[in-house]
Amino acid sequence: MMFNLKVSCSDSCCSSKVKEDICKVCGQKGHSVKEITVKQFLKRPLSQYKGFYFCKNPDCDVVYFNNEKYIYLKKEDINTKVGIKEGSGLICYCFGYTIEQTKEHGEKVLDEINKKIKSLGCECEIKNPSGRCCLSDIREVIKSEVI
Predict the structure, then answer these.
(1) pTM, to two decimals
(2) Distances in Å between the alpha carbon of 112 and those of 51, 74, 99, 118, 123?
């Protein structure tokens, strides 16, 4: 079965430009996250929240890193489970969809989330630990199930 993976999110959180840096723990690329995102998900406060990146690698315990300040915040420093790093659990934090639902229902989940974003908006910056829209992660899960 062929899936239409070109559903796009028009919300500002999805279209903002992100910078990339390499997580020095695992060597994978990470994308920049806004201060509000890091602040929202940490168990303990930091003196500053600028310059952090999200490490998406499921094999790496680091969630947020700042290479300039040598700060590497791990799963145990975060107040929620990061589904994409766990391989299970939430993938859409705004509307409560899981990785398991995405694997089972594929494009239906993608379409439902896109409709909800258009009608209700989303709060990815403060609900999703990655600080970004989940649609690209959902597309990756669907592609991995099709192959």
Answers:
(1) 0.85
(2) 33, 32, 14, 10, 16
Q: Which amino acid is at 147?
A: I
For residues 3 and 107, is the Cβ–Cβ distance under 8 A?
yes
How far apart (Å, rounded) are the C-alpha atoms in residues 2 and 146? Answer: 8
The single residue listed with the structure tokens 């999703």 is 128
Tell whether domain 19-77 is in CATH 1.10.20.
no
pLDDT digits (tens, 9 = 90+) for 7-31: 344 444 455 678 999 999 999 999 9
Alpha-carbon distance of 82 to 58, in angstroms, equals 9
Chain segment 40-87, per-residue pLDDT in tens = 999 999 999 999 999 999 999 999 999 999 999 999 999 999 999 998
